[in-house]
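Students often ask why we bother predicting the structure of a whole assembly rather than each chain alone. The short answer is interfaces. A chain on its own may look different once its partners are present, and contacts between molecules only exist in the joint model. In this exercise we take two input lines together and write out one structure for the complete complex. Read the inputs first and try to guess which parts will touch.
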Amino acid sequence: MQMELHDLCMAYPDGKQALQHLNLSLKAPSLTGLLGPNGAGKSTLMKLLVAALLPTGGSILVDGQPLAKSERLLKASLGYLPQDFGLFDELTVTQFLDYMAALKGLRNPKKAIQEAVQAVRLEEKSKSKIRTLSGGQRQRVGIAQALLGNPPLLILDEPTVGLDPEERIHFRNLFSRTAQERLVLLSTHIIEDVQSVCDQLVVINHGKVLFTGTPEQLIQTAVGHVGVFWERNSVQEQGSVREQDSVWEQGLHITARVNTSQGIRCRAVADKLPAYAKAEEPSLEDAYLYLISKEAAQ
Amino acid sequence: MKTLCLFFLELRRLLQSRLAWLAAGLTVLSPAMGLFLYKPASASTMLSMYLANPAIAGGVAGGILFGLLTVFAFDRPARNRVDTLMDAVVSPLCMALIRLLALIAGALLVIGLTMLVWLPVSRWLTGTVFGAADYVLAYLLLMGLALPLGVLAAAAAYQFIRRADLSLAVFAAFAALSLTVWADNWQLCWLNPCVWALSDDFSNFRIFRSVGYMRLTWLAALSGVWTLSWLCVRQYGKGLLGSLLRSARRAYRPAIAFVLLACAGTAYAAQPFVDHSNLDEMAMSFYEIPYAEDVVCTGRTAQVFPDVNAGTVSGRASYQFQNSSGEEQVVAFGVTPGYVISDVQANGADVPFSVSDYQEYNEAMLEVAIPAEEQVELTMHYAGFPQENRMMSAMQGGAEISAEYLCLENAALSPRLMNVMPDEHRYPTTLEITLPASMTVIPFGSSDAQAVAEHEDGTKTWRYESNSTGGILYAGTYIREDIAVDGFTVAFYYGRKHQAVMEAAGAAEAVKSVVEYCTKHYGRLSFGSADKLKLIQSRVSGGGYAADGASLLDEADFTAENLSNADKGAGAGEVMIHELVHQWWGLGNMFDASDPGSAWSAEGLTVYTTYRIVKELYGEDYAQEHYVNQWQQAVDDYYLDFYVRNPDYLAALPEDKQLEITNNLTYVRQYCEMPLKILKAEALVGGEDAMDLILKGLFGREIDPMYPYLTYQEFLDACGLAEEDLNLV
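Now the answer. The structure tokens for the assembled complex follow.
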């Protein structure tokens, strides 16, 4: 499965420009992480990819065919977990998945349901009414319905929201395994979710693509732009302590402040590191923040 | 294939829904409302009470319940926010269609279940008049089709509005329209069809056809509206208009909607059941057309071929004229709306003709120019589906034509000559009608029909002769019983289905006693064949009437329940008495009907005489309670009526409303006020014997052929009273 986005634009009726001239190519097998701050346009892009919205400009090609002509093929190949969704509370987990499997037209729904339930670790709750499930368990039912039938295209919008850390690790690994044969697009603003498993990253902000490439390539862009320093040194240098956490002033963006016995140790990204900062090896989060903060400064 | 799988999936899901089971359960039980609470069919036949009313009530309740269920089912994914998941898998348009089909399939299953549950109940309640065809058609048409209509209407409302609360409000308003404002409009009352009666003893195809037509018209209309709403199903994050424009890109979709709406509109406008007669009951246009000068009708014949399967009639009519004017003359005929005149020939040559768009009293006017020849034979072919009078559109069924029953009146039998005088033989008429061999033909009047030919297709041709420009003919699966009274024979015809009930009720005995009473008190009938009277049980029609040598009885008064109702005494017999008495007061002595609002009519003396006979048969208390007290109550109410006390306000009302009120008030004056006055006269002249003598004198008086009517003044003069002596206030 291959999806190509050409000059994709999306403006809402209220005038809000959600996406601007996006060009992307997504090809299986791949686990592509879609990163961006809240309101960057991730969910809009996801909705466009599942034909829940129609673009106001540009085109989406599915295996070379315009999405408008291959919508039925897309729906037959798609597993989709939206950011905001509900479930039929009066049904049990199995009944709900059975209904979704039937909607998808799966030939062997029992097996598919069993696999999906196992994959999301809901075996014990499979006979429970959905209304009795916790928030995390409902999220897992949502993931399970997306996984039903092993669709060749899996689009997951914030799939790990509401999951505890252990579950998040489990699902990261699950998505990674799933992506060995398929195209998985994972939208998140949690860097950890994509750090270890995605082979491709797309970073968008304000409706524009800021980066496409591998995580390593993204990290590479931040080499020499990440440093650590003691806060007292910066105070001495600047004469005062200022609010710097989220403000790109003097080219420095503090990403972490850690209280230690020797004082406050800061980690920051900057286009040009100050003299009192000691250069550090960047992490994916550093690189992402560097990219976002640089775009904000521009 | 996937669509079919989705349909069964959605149906299965629906059948697992508790709400659906609740709606289904209530729908199955809802015909019970028709037995106790909601009884739109007012006739007292068993099928009206125990089949039509339950079926209509079931349709109303089922339609509303399935409408509510539809809104719930359509709103369910959005309410649970599952629509985003479902839309990603199946197109919202496809899902909306599947959901609709599943709901309609569910409705059909419920109808089937309801029919199964109510079959033994209906059979038990209706007794010997139960018929499988009536049962199936009643439940399918009166109840069944209301459910899909409710589903379509509610689904359309939801798809347009996409809010459950507003959709429910719109659907409720639509249902309320049918139950209130549109309740008397047979084409608009989509939920509660205008069915006032079902016949026990004869068939009901005409009313079923009418209801079926109304249902199909609405089915097309609501399918069209639903298809339009379907195009508005929100998709791609767009609103109503955006979704509509997007969905309408495939041209066949809006085309289907418009074709359906056009079909519905055409079906509504071109309905074949009801004519366009002038609603003014006083209209007399056709009676005011001038007679053709120096033209007389010397005879007429007609061969009539009813199609008892299609409910249509075709025929050939022939009229012989003597035209001594030496000029071309225009001859006018009354033609039943719905009939098409295919050709008219005068002495073998085609002549031009026209049929008026204007209709009056269920007739259109056919005008033909006959040539300036001395002897003219005019022949014409006609055929069609006879329409009923618009004024009776909420009480259809009278034009029933089936293998069990038919009634063809005047122009429905053959075009009725309007403006040509008779010769000395008074329109000698020979009429032939071909019908299934199981049917008995009964001309309404003194004529007798004879079977003159049997055909290989199982039909018989009957012939009879009469003297009239029109005539009424009944035919059906009748039993004939001849009752001899003092050398006078009453030929009593009643439906084969009703034989057991009639025999058990001793109807023949009742007939005998009435004829005996009237002959003894007033004298023998002077009209027609003096030694014979036909008493014909008609299909339910809301009342009986009498004509020369024949009297009609409504089957509704002879139901098993009526005949066995101890509270009513011999209620059925009383109607029989009433109609029979019209042979004396109504025919034996005619009453001037030129003023239909007059209190003095054939009914006053007929009702009074009926009371006297009932008093003799069942005792004074019974007669007082069921006659005098009821007249008094009605008259008291009449004098208190707002419009009687304030006639200026009546004049300010719309014409149709005025007519309705006037007709109701006239009914009270004729059927209640006048009998009370006669009763007061009875007291003033010295009692019953004295009044009997007076009436005997009036009945046997010498009749002035120029004005053969018995007037109120003659009655007062015979009693030696003045008009004010009989004032009741």
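Check your guess against this: The interface with chain B takes residues 13, 47, 50-54, 71-72, 75, 78, 80, 82, 84-89, 99-100, 102-105, 142, 145 of chain A (CB under 8 Å).
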